[in-house]
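ok here's ABC transporter, seq below lol
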Amino acid sequence: MTTVPALEIRDLRKTYATGVEALKGISLSVAPGDFYALLGPNGAGKSTLIGIVSSLANKSAGEVKVFGVDLHAQRSQAMRLIGLVPQEINFNMFETPFDILVNYAGFYGIPRAEAVVRANQELARAQLSEKAKTMSRTLSGGMKRRLMIARAMMTRPKLLILDEPTAGVDIEIRRGMWKTLKEVNAAGTTVILTTHYLEEAESLCRNLAIIDRGRIIEQGPMKALLAKLDVEGFLFDVDGALPATLPDIPGATLVATDDHTLDLEMPREMDLNRVFAALAGAGIRVRSMRTKSNRLEELFVRLTGQPEAAAASEKRA
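and the structure came out like this:
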């Protein structure tokens, strides 16, 4: 039995009036219930792709289907299946969160009684129940972001699309939003996320596509793509001060990041016991170790050849 994809894109192209080719034949398929990441540097075509899928921009050629519904031939029906969370905060700051949600539902023909029930449910899921009757302009940045997600969920979309939802918020707020998005996905909603925070994609998403210069240069399961890396990274916390000279480990790179921390990069096939033996021989006692969380960033840099994009994401994070 064949499962209809939540989103199916075939040979999607977009050329602007200026002659700029933003999309050059994008094809991808997102399974129902998936948590899918779209990654790429600025100008890669992510926003154009999201704009076309959410009917904010017109395609030049190609096909887009949402749960089997053709976006071009049956636009209204397809759009009823989609919820969009844009990067910009775009609700009325002088309305309460409760009113924002109820009024939004009204735009989609949802009866007020049902809208009230849904609003209370979504405010609770977004941990905003206590702020339901507060003027929205007084909410924190993280609360406003969660309110955007709650608003999109008022129509009970089968597909939720988020365009840089955590841009500009600190790591604590980001992690709180991750929890919300995981709950939305666990409840059955398919989620597509565009993000510059590669740690975010690795933490949340099961599959991904990397877009560069209007083309998909890699796509597939997150674990399979990360497995393509032939280098692993570890951080070691050590007891006592490090010696003036670190041991030489052939094939590996060992650097002291401070007086009590070592940064190791080694081939995946290398036996980690060799590393521990070399450290012990130099009188270095490892207290604890952890895997570095930049594997996806390294993959991104290798595939796009744009280390400045990764550096920027590191700085913003």
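fwiw The first helix runs from residue 46 to 53. kinda neat tbh
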